[in-house]
Protein backbone atom coordinates (compact mmCIF):
# COMPACT_ATOMS: atom_id res chain seq x y z
CA UNK A 1 0.00 0.00 0.00
CA UNK A 2 1.40 3.38 -1.02
CA UNK A 3 1.67 5.50 2.15
CA UNK A 4 -0.10 8.82 2.48
CA UNK A 5 0.80 12.06 4.21
CA UNK A 6 -2.17 14.26 5.07
CA UNK A 7 -1.53 18.00 5.46
CA UNK A 8 -4.19 19.66 7.61
CA UNK A 9 -3.99 23.32 8.44
CA UNK A 10 -4.86 26.90 7.51
CA UNK A 11 -3.72 29.06 4.58
CA UNK A 12 -0.06 28.15 5.10
CA UNK A 13 -1.12 24.59 4.35
CA UNK A 14 -3.65 25.49 1.63
CA UNK A 15 -0.98 27.50 -0.18
CA UNK A 16 1.68 24.81 0.26
CA UNK A 17 1.37 23.66 -3.36
CA UNK A 18 2.06 27.11 -4.82
CA UNK A 19 5.43 27.53 -6.54
CA UNK A 20 8.18 26.62 -4.07
CA UNK A 21 5.63 25.43 -1.50
CA UNK A 22 6.46 22.96 1.26
CA UNK A 23 3.58 20.61 0.42
CA UNK A 24 4.51 20.34 -3.26
CA UNK A 25 8.14 19.82 -2.19
CA UNK A 26 7.03 16.85 -0.07
CA UNK A 27 5.01 15.43 -2.98
CA UNK A 28 8.06 15.85 -5.20
CA UNK A 29 10.51 14.37 -2.68
CA UNK A 30 8.32 11.28 -2.18
CA UNK A 31 7.05 11.25 -5.78
CA UNK A 32 7.69 7.53 -6.28
CA UNK A 33 6.92 6.54 -2.71
CA UNK A 34 3.97 8.33 -1.10
CA UNK A 35 0.88 10.42 -1.84
CA UNK A 36 0.50 13.82 -0.25
CA UNK A 37 -3.10 14.77 0.51
CA UNK A 38 -3.80 18.50 0.83
CA UNK A 39 -6.45 19.63 3.30
CA UNK A 40 -5.76 23.33 3.83
CA UNK A 41 -8.48 25.71 4.98
CA UNK A 42 -7.44 29.34 4.55
CA UNK A 43 -8.42 31.61 7.40
CA UNK A 44 -9.55 28.79 9.70
CA UNK A 45 -8.63 28.64 13.37
CA UNK A 46 -8.78 25.50 15.53
CA UNK A 47 -12.39 26.21 16.55
CA UNK A 48 -13.58 26.20 12.96
CA UNK A 49 -11.28 23.34 12.00
CA UNK A 50 -12.68 21.18 14.77
CA UNK A 51 -16.20 21.97 13.64
CA UNK A 52 -15.55 20.71 10.09
CA UNK A 53 -12.90 18.09 10.84
CA UNK A 54 -15.00 15.07 10.00
CA UNK A 55 -16.13 16.58 6.71
CA UNK A 56 -12.64 17.80 5.84
CA UNK A 57 -11.24 14.29 6.23
CA UNK A 58 -14.11 12.45 4.57
CA UNK A 59 -12.33 11.47 1.37
CA UNK A 60 -8.84 11.60 2.86
CA UNK A 61 -9.96 8.75 5.10
CA UNK A 62 -11.73 6.80 2.40
CA UNK A 63 -8.91 4.31 2.02
CA UNK A 64 -8.10 0.86 3.21
CA UNK A 65 -5.10 1.90 5.29
CA UNK A 66 -4.34 4.72 7.71
CA UNK A 67 -2.14 7.56 6.47
CA UNK A 68 1.46 7.29 7.65
CA UNK A 69 1.31 10.78 9.12
CA UNK A 70 -0.84 13.87 9.40
CA UNK A 71 0.45 17.38 10.00
CA UNK A 72 -1.71 19.63 12.19
CA UNK A 73 -0.71 23.22 11.53
CA UNK A 74 -3.03 25.76 13.17
CA UNK A 75 -2.55 28.72 15.44
CA UNK A 76 -1.62 31.60 13.17
CA UNK A 77 -5.30 32.59 13.05
CA UNK A 78 -6.12 31.64 16.64
CA UNK A 79 -3.37 34.07 17.70
CA UNK A 80 -4.99 37.04 15.93
CA UNK A 81 -5.43 39.77 18.52
CA UNK A 82 -8.91 39.88 20.07
CA UNK A 83 -9.18 43.66 19.74
CA UNK A 84 -7.91 44.22 16.21
CA UNK A 85 -9.04 43.84 12.60
CA UNK A 86 -9.14 40.02 12.54
CA UNK A 87 -10.70 39.60 15.98
CA UNK A 88 -13.23 37.09 14.63
CA UNK A 89 -10.38 34.66 13.91
CA UNK A 90 -9.09 34.87 17.48
CA UNK A 91 -9.38 31.85 19.75
CA UNK A 92 -8.38 32.18 23.43
CA UNK A 93 -5.18 30.36 24.41
CA UNK A 94 -6.91 27.80 26.63
CA UNK A 95 -9.42 26.93 23.97
CA UNK A 96 -6.64 26.71 21.34
CA UNK A 97 -5.04 23.99 23.45
CA UNK A 98 -8.34 22.23 24.08
CA UNK A 99 -9.10 22.29 20.35
CA UNK A 100 -5.64 20.96 19.46
CA UNK A 101 -6.15 18.09 21.91
CA UNK A 102 -9.53 17.33 20.35
CA UNK A 103 -8.11 17.39 16.81
CA UNK A 104 -5.29 15.04 17.86
CA UNK A 105 -7.78 12.75 19.62
CA UNK A 106 -9.88 12.61 16.46
CA UNK A 107 -6.90 11.52 14.36
CA UNK A 108 -5.68 9.06 16.98
CA UNK A 109 -9.10 7.48 17.06
CA UNK A 110 -9.71 7.48 13.32
CA UNK A 111 -6.18 6.59 12.21
CA UNK A 112 -4.47 4.76 15.09
CA UNK A 113 -1.44 3.98 12.93
CA UNK A 114 -0.83 7.56 11.79
CA UNK A 115 1.83 9.75 13.35
CA UNK A 116 0.40 13.13 14.35
CA UNK A 117 2.87 15.95 13.76
CA UNK A 118 2.01 19.29 15.31
CA UNK A 119 3.41 22.48 13.81
CA UNK A 120 3.43 25.72 15.79
CA UNK A 121 2.27 29.00 14.28
CA UNK A 122 5.08 30.83 12.47
CA UNK A 123 6.65 34.09 13.63
CA UNK A 124 5.03 37.37 12.61
CA UNK A 125 6.67 40.43 11.07
CA UNK A 126 4.39 43.17 12.29
CA UNK A 127 5.25 46.06 9.95
CA UNK A 128 4.48 43.82 6.97
CA UNK A 129 1.17 42.81 8.55
CA UNK A 130 0.18 46.47 8.96
CA UNK A 131 1.05 47.15 5.30
CA UNK A 132 -0.88 44.05 4.22
CA UNK A 133 -4.00 45.04 6.18
CA UNK A 134 -4.05 48.80 5.69
CA UNK A 135 -1.83 49.56 2.67
CA UNK A 136 -1.21 53.27 2.31
CA UNK A 137 -3.45 54.11 5.26
CA UNK A 138 -1.11 52.39 7.70
CA UNK A 139 -0.10 55.39 9.80
CA UNK A 140 -0.67 54.84 13.53
CA UNK A 141 -2.33 51.46 12.83
CA UNK A 142 -1.74 48.41 14.98
CA UNK A 143 -1.01 44.97 13.52
CA UNK A 144 -3.78 42.37 13.73
CA UNK A 145 -1.20 39.77 14.80
CA UNK A 146 1.97 40.18 16.86
CA UNK A 147 5.07 38.05 17.05
CA UNK A 148 4.73 37.92 20.83
CA UNK A 149 1.21 36.48 20.65
CA UNK A 150 2.29 33.98 17.97
CA UNK A 151 5.13 32.92 20.29
CA UNK A 152 2.72 32.36 23.16
CA UNK A 153 0.53 30.15 20.95
CA UNK A 154 3.62 28.36 19.65
CA UNK A 155 4.62 27.47 23.22
CA UNK A 156 1.07 26.34 23.95
CA UNK A 157 1.20 24.07 20.89
CA UNK A 158 4.54 22.62 22.02
CA UNK A 159 3.08 21.96 25.46
CA UNK A 160 0.12 20.06 24.00
CA UNK A 161 2.45 18.02 21.78
CA UNK A 162 4.63 17.07 24.76
CA UNK A 163 1.60 16.25 26.87
CA UNK A 164 0.23 13.93 24.16
CA UNK A 165 3.68 12.67 23.15
CA UNK A 166 3.38 13.77 19.53
CA UNK A 167 6.31 15.15 17.52
CA UNK A 168 6.19 18.93 17.13
CA UNK A 169 7.89 21.37 14.78
CA UNK A 170 8.59 24.71 16.44
CA UNK A 171 8.62 26.77 13.27
CA UNK A 172 8.19 29.97 15.32
CA UNK A 173 11.62 29.52 16.90
CA UNK A 174 13.30 27.82 13.93
CA UNK A 175 12.39 30.49 11.40
CA UNK A 176 13.71 33.29 13.60
CA UNK A 177 17.16 31.69 13.55
CA UNK A 178 17.58 32.66 9.89
CA UNK A 179 19.05 36.04 8.87
CA UNK A 180 16.45 38.60 7.90
CA UNK A 181 13.72 36.03 8.51
CA UNK A 182 11.18 38.86 8.53
CA UNK A 183 11.54 39.26 4.78
CA UNK A 184 13.60 36.25 3.66
CA UNK A 185 11.16 33.67 5.08
CA UNK A 186 7.89 35.65 5.15
CA UNK A 187 6.31 37.40 2.15
CA UNK A 188 3.66 39.43 3.98
CA UNK A 189 4.72 39.07 7.58
CA UNK A 190 2.74 35.82 7.94
CA UNK A 191 2.83 33.60 4.83
CA UNK A 192 5.99 31.97 3.52
CA UNK A 193 8.41 32.87 0.74
CA UNK A 194 9.96 29.93 -1.15
CA UNK A 195 12.85 30.19 1.36
CA UNK A 196 10.42 30.06 4.28
CA UNK A 197 8.73 27.06 2.66
CA UNK A 198 12.13 25.40 2.37
CA UNK A 199 12.75 25.90 6.11
CA UNK A 200 9.49 24.15 6.96
CA UNK A 201 9.99 21.44 4.32
CA UNK A 202 13.39 20.59 5.86
CA UNK A 203 11.87 20.44 9.34
CA UNK A 204 9.03 18.18 8.17
CA UNK A 205 11.54 15.86 6.46
CA UNK A 206 13.63 15.68 9.66
CA UNK A 207 10.54 14.91 11.74
CA UNK A 208 9.34 12.28 9.29
CA UNK A 209 12.77 10.67 9.37
CA UNK A 210 12.62 10.45 13.17
CA UNK A 211 9.36 8.50 12.89
CA UNK A 212 10.97 6.20 10.31
CA UNK A 213 9.48 7.75 7.17
CA UNK A 214 12.21 8.63 4.66
CA UNK A 215 13.30 8.03 1.07
CA UNK A 216 15.73 5.44 2.41
CA UNK A 217 13.16 3.52 4.43
CA UNK A 218 10.32 3.60 1.90
CA UNK A 219 9.88 1.24 -0.99
CA UNK A 220 9.82 2.93 -4.39
CA UNK A 221 6.87 2.33 -6.67
CA UNK A 222 8.00 0.14 -9.56
CA UNK A 223 11.60 -0.14 -10.77
CA UNK A 224 13.47 3.14 -11.04
CA UNK A 225 14.97 3.96 -14.44
CA UNK A 226 18.54 3.23 -13.30
CA UNK A 227 17.42 -0.21 -12.13
CA UNK A 228 16.22 -1.13 -15.61
CA UNK A 229 18.84 -3.06 -17.61
CA UNK A 230 19.23 -1.42 -21.04
CA UNK A 231 19.99 -4.87 -22.50
CA UNK A 232 16.82 -6.45 -21.07
CA UNK A 233 14.45 -3.69 -19.96
CA UNK A 234 11.36 -5.82 -19.49
CA UNK A 235 13.08 -8.14 -17.03
CA UNK A 236 12.94 -5.58 -14.20
CA UNK A 237 9.27 -4.93 -14.93
CA UNK A 238 8.10 -8.51 -14.51
CA UNK A 239 6.06 -9.16 -11.39
CA UNK B 1 -17.05 13.01 -3.28
CA UNK B 2 -13.96 15.13 -3.86
CA UNK B 3 -12.89 14.62 -7.48
CA UNK B 4 -9.45 13.33 -8.40
CA UNK B 5 -7.12 14.05 -11.29
CA UNK B 6 -4.60 11.31 -11.99
CA UNK B 7 -1.38 12.30 -13.76
CA UNK B 8 0.22 9.34 -15.54
CA UNK B 9 3.38 9.76 -17.56
CA UNK B 10 7.17 9.76 -17.67
CA UNK B 11 9.70 12.10 -16.04
CA UNK B 12 7.85 15.21 -17.19
CA UNK B 13 4.98 13.97 -15.05
CA UNK B 14 7.16 12.63 -12.20
CA UNK B 15 8.90 16.02 -11.95
CA UNK B 16 5.65 17.97 -12.18
CA UNK B 17 5.63 18.71 -8.44
CA UNK B 18 9.07 20.32 -8.44
CA UNK B 19 9.13 24.10 -7.94
CA UNK B 20 6.97 25.72 -10.61
CA UNK B 21 5.76 22.32 -11.85
CA UNK B 22 2.52 21.83 -13.76
CA UNK B 23 1.23 19.10 -11.43
CA UNK B 24 1.76 21.15 -8.28
CA UNK B 25 0.12 24.11 -10.05
CA UNK B 26 -2.96 21.95 -10.69
CA UNK B 27 -3.04 20.84 -7.04
CA UNK B 28 -2.75 24.47 -5.99
CA UNK B 29 -5.39 25.71 -8.45
CA UNK B 30 -7.89 23.07 -7.29
CA UNK B 31 -6.66 23.06 -3.68
CA UNK B 32 -10.14 23.31 -2.18
CA UNK B 33 -11.84 21.26 -4.87
CA UNK B 34 -9.91 18.23 -6.10
CA UNK B 35 -7.03 15.90 -5.30
CA UNK B 36 -4.19 15.49 -7.76
CA UNK B 37 -2.66 12.01 -7.80
CA UNK B 38 0.88 11.78 -9.12
CA UNK B 39 1.89 8.66 -11.02
CA UNK B 40 5.04 9.64 -12.92
CA UNK B 41 7.59 7.06 -14.01
CA UNK B 42 10.84 8.69 -15.11
CA UNK B 43 12.42 7.13 -18.17
CA UNK B 44 9.45 4.94 -19.01
CA UNK B 45 8.08 4.56 -22.51
CA UNK B 46 4.60 3.26 -23.39
CA UNK B 47 5.83 -0.34 -23.59
CA UNK B 48 7.09 -0.27 -20.01
CA UNK B 49 4.13 1.80 -18.81
CA UNK B 50 1.70 -0.72 -20.23
CA UNK B 51 3.58 -3.53 -18.51
CA UNK B 52 3.22 -1.93 -15.06
CA UNK B 53 -0.07 -0.08 -15.60
CA UNK B 54 -2.16 -2.19 -13.27
CA UNK B 55 0.42 -1.95 -10.48
CA UNK B 56 0.97 1.79 -11.05
CA UNK B 57 -2.74 2.46 -10.62
CA UNK B 58 -3.33 0.06 -7.73
CA UNK B 59 -3.78 2.63 -4.99
CA UNK B 60 -4.90 5.42 -7.31
CA UNK B 61 -7.88 3.23 -8.10
CA UNK B 62 -8.56 2.19 -4.54
CA UNK B 63 -11.44 4.60 -4.13
CA UNK B 64 -15.17 4.49 -4.26
CA UNK B 65 -15.49 6.75 -7.31
CA UNK B 66 -13.69 7.06 -10.63
CA UNK B 67 -11.23 9.92 -11.04
CA UNK B 68 -12.64 12.85 -13.00
CA UNK B 69 -9.76 12.72 -15.45
CA UNK B 70 -6.45 11.06 -16.14
CA UNK B 71 -3.65 12.57 -18.19
CA UNK B 72 -1.64 10.15 -20.34
CA UNK B 73 1.65 11.79 -21.20
CA UNK B 74 4.12 9.46 -22.91
CA UNK B 75 6.14 9.56 -26.07
CA UNK B 76 9.23 11.57 -25.21
CA UNK B 77 11.08 8.32 -24.45
CA UNK B 78 9.39 6.25 -27.15
CA UNK B 79 10.71 8.79 -29.67
CA UNK B 80 14.35 8.29 -28.62
CA UNK B 81 16.30 7.40 -31.76
CA UNK B 82 16.80 3.65 -32.26
CA UNK B 83 20.47 4.04 -33.15
CA UNK B 84 21.65 6.47 -30.48
CA UNK B 85 22.56 6.57 -26.79
CA UNK B 86 19.02 5.96 -25.43
CA UNK B 87 18.08 3.30 -27.99
CA UNK B 88 16.70 1.03 -25.25
CA UNK B 89 13.95 3.59 -24.55
CA UNK B 90 12.88 3.64 -28.19
CA UNK B 91 9.50 2.21 -29.17
CA UNK B 92 8.58 1.97 -32.88
CA UNK B 93 5.87 4.36 -34.01
CA UNK B 94 3.27 1.66 -34.70
CA UNK B 95 3.78 0.07 -31.33
CA UNK B 96 3.63 3.51 -29.63
CA UNK B 97 0.15 3.93 -31.06
CA UNK B 98 -0.89 0.39 -30.15
CA UNK B 99 0.37 0.92 -26.60
CA UNK B 100 -1.45 4.26 -26.28
CA UNK B 101 -4.67 2.57 -27.42
CA UNK B 102 -4.17 -0.17 -24.83
CA UNK B 103 -3.47 2.34 -22.04
CA UNK B 104 -6.61 4.28 -22.96
CA UNK B 105 -8.64 1.07 -23.11
CA UNK B 106 -7.41 0.12 -19.65
CA UNK B 107 -8.56 3.44 -18.19
CA UNK B 108 -11.86 3.37 -20.08
CA UNK B 109 -12.56 -0.09 -18.71
CA UNK B 110 -11.39 0.58 -15.16
CA UNK B 111 -12.74 4.12 -14.80
CA UNK B 112 -15.63 4.51 -17.27
CA UNK B 113 -16.49 7.95 -15.88
CA UNK B 114 -12.97 9.39 -16.20
CA UNK B 115 -12.00 11.67 -19.06
CA UNK B 116 -8.79 10.48 -20.70
CA UNK B 117 -6.59 13.38 -21.76
CA UNK B 118 -3.68 12.53 -24.05
CA UNK B 119 -0.62 14.78 -24.13
CA UNK B 120 1.84 14.60 -27.01
CA UNK B 121 5.59 14.47 -26.42
CA UNK B 122 7.13 17.95 -26.15
CA UNK B 123 9.48 19.49 -28.70
CA UNK B 124 13.20 18.77 -28.43
CA UNK B 125 16.09 21.25 -28.51
CA UNK B 126 18.85 19.10 -29.92
CA UNK B 127 22.00 21.08 -28.98
CA UNK B 128 20.90 21.03 -25.33
CA UNK B 129 20.31 17.27 -25.54
CA UNK B 130 23.85 16.72 -26.88
CA UNK B 131 25.27 18.83 -24.03
CA UNK B 132 23.13 16.97 -21.51
CA UNK B 133 24.24 13.55 -22.76
CA UNK B 134 27.90 14.19 -23.56
CA UNK B 135 28.92 17.33 -21.68
CA UNK B 136 32.35 18.56 -22.78
CA UNK B 137 32.82 15.62 -25.14
CA UNK B 138 30.02 16.77 -27.37
CA UNK B 139 32.01 17.44 -30.56
CA UNK B 140 30.58 15.59 -33.58
CA UNK B 141 28.03 13.81 -31.37
CA UNK B 142 24.45 13.21 -32.44
CA UNK B 143 21.47 13.90 -30.17
CA UNK B 144 19.63 10.89 -28.75
CA UNK B 145 16.30 12.57 -29.53
CA UNK B 146 15.38 14.91 -32.40
CA UNK B 147 12.62 17.44 -32.69
CA UNK B 148 11.54 15.86 -35.95
CA UNK B 149 11.08 12.43 -34.36
CA UNK B 150 9.22 13.98 -31.41
CA UNK B 151 6.94 15.72 -33.92
CA UNK B 152 6.20 12.44 -35.68
CA UNK B 153 5.25 10.81 -32.36
CA UNK B 154 3.21 13.88 -31.41
CA UNK B 155 1.17 13.51 -34.61
CA UNK B 156 0.75 9.79 -33.95
CA UNK B 157 -0.55 10.61 -30.45
CA UNK B 158 -3.01 13.15 -31.89
CA UNK B 159 -4.22 10.55 -34.40
CA UNK B 160 -4.90 8.01 -31.64
CA UNK B 161 -6.74 10.63 -29.59
CA UNK B 162 -8.95 11.55 -32.54
CA UNK B 163 -9.57 7.92 -33.38
CA UNK B 164 -10.68 7.21 -29.79
CA UNK B 165 -12.40 10.58 -29.38
CA UNK B 166 -10.30 11.65 -26.41
CA UNK B 167 -9.16 15.24 -25.84
CA UNK B 168 -5.50 15.80 -26.70
CA UNK B 169 -2.99 18.50 -25.84
CA UNK B 170 -0.49 19.06 -28.64
CA UNK B 171 2.28 20.43 -26.47
CA UNK B 172 4.81 19.78 -29.26
CA UNK B 173 3.15 22.41 -31.47
CA UNK B 174 1.99 24.72 -28.67
CA UNK B 175 5.38 25.08 -27.03
CA UNK B 176 7.08 25.97 -30.31
CA UNK B 177 4.78 28.99 -30.65
CA UNK B 178 6.59 30.73 -27.79
CA UNK B 179 9.66 32.91 -28.39
CA UNK B 180 12.95 31.15 -27.67
CA UNK B 181 11.03 28.04 -26.62
CA UNK B 182 14.26 26.07 -26.90
CA UNK B 183 15.57 27.69 -23.72
CA UNK B 184 12.58 29.57 -22.28
CA UNK B 185 10.37 26.47 -22.05
CA UNK B 186 12.96 23.68 -21.89
CA UNK B 187 15.78 23.43 -19.35
CA UNK B 188 17.81 20.63 -20.95
CA UNK B 189 16.25 20.38 -24.37
CA UNK B 190 13.58 17.96 -23.07
CA UNK B 191 12.33 18.76 -19.55
CA UNK B 192 10.41 21.91 -18.66
CA UNK B 193 11.44 25.21 -17.11
CA UNK B 194 8.85 26.88 -14.85
CA UNK B 195 7.73 28.78 -17.97
CA UNK B 196 7.38 25.53 -19.91
CA UNK B 197 5.43 24.07 -17.00
CA UNK B 198 3.15 27.10 -17.11
CA UNK B 199 2.45 26.53 -20.81
CA UNK B 200 1.36 22.95 -20.13
CA UNK B 201 -0.57 23.92 -16.99
CA UNK B 202 -2.58 26.45 -19.00
CA UNK B 203 -3.32 23.87 -21.69
CA UNK B 204 -4.43 21.29 -19.11
CA UNK B 205 -6.73 23.86 -17.48
CA UNK B 206 -8.26 24.73 -20.87
CA UNK B 207 -8.81 21.06 -21.67
CA UNK B 208 -10.32 20.37 -18.24
CA UNK B 209 -12.65 23.33 -18.73
CA UNK B 210 -13.85 21.90 -22.03
CA UNK B 211 -14.83 18.67 -20.26
CA UNK B 212 -16.64 20.71 -17.60
CA UNK B 213 -14.00 20.57 -14.89
CA UNK B 214 -13.15 24.06 -13.63
CA UNK B 215 -13.00 26.19 -10.49
CA UNK B 216 -16.34 27.66 -11.51
CA UNK B 217 -18.08 24.31 -12.01
CA UNK B 218 -16.67 22.50 -8.98
CA UNK B 219 -17.98 22.71 -5.47
CA UNK B 220 -15.46 24.01 -2.93
CA UNK B 221 -14.70 21.92 0.13
CA UNK B 222 -16.23 23.63 3.14
CA UNK B 223 -17.02 27.34 3.34
CA UNK B 224 -14.33 29.66 2.00
CA UNK B 225 -13.00 32.31 4.38
CA UNK B 226 -14.83 35.14 2.63
CA UNK B 227 -18.10 33.23 3.00
CA UNK B 228 -17.74 33.14 6.78
CA UNK B 229 -19.62 35.96 8.50
CA UNK B 230 -17.26 37.71 10.97
CA UNK B 231 -20.25 38.40 13.21
CA UNK B 232 -21.36 34.76 13.32
CA UNK B 233 -18.52 32.57 12.03
CA UNK B 234 -19.89 29.22 13.16
CA UNK B 235 -23.14 29.68 11.23
CA UNK B 236 -21.48 28.97 7.87
CA UNK B 237 -19.81 25.89 9.31
CA UNK B 238 -22.98 24.15 10.43
CA UNK B 239 -23.95 21.11 8.38
CATH architecture tag of chain A: 3-Layer(aba) Sandwich
If interface size is counted as residues with C-beta under 8 Å from the partner's C-beta, which chains form the largest one?
Answer: A-B, 49 and 49 residues
Strand content of chain A: 5-15%
Number of domains of chain A: 1
Question: Can you count the beta strands of chain A?
Answer: 5
The gyration radius over C-alpha positions of chain A equals: 19 Å
How would you describe the shape of chain A?
Answer: globular
Taken in chain order, the helices and strands of chain A follow as EHHEHEHEHHEHHHH
> What's the end-to-end separation of chain A, in Å?
16 Å
**Helical content class of chain A:** 40-55%
The CATH class name of chain A reads Alpha Beta
Point out poorly predicted stretches of chain A: none
The pLDDT mean of chain A sits at 95
CATH topology of chain A: Rossmann fold
Please identify which CATH superfamily of chain A we are dealing with. SGNH hydrolase
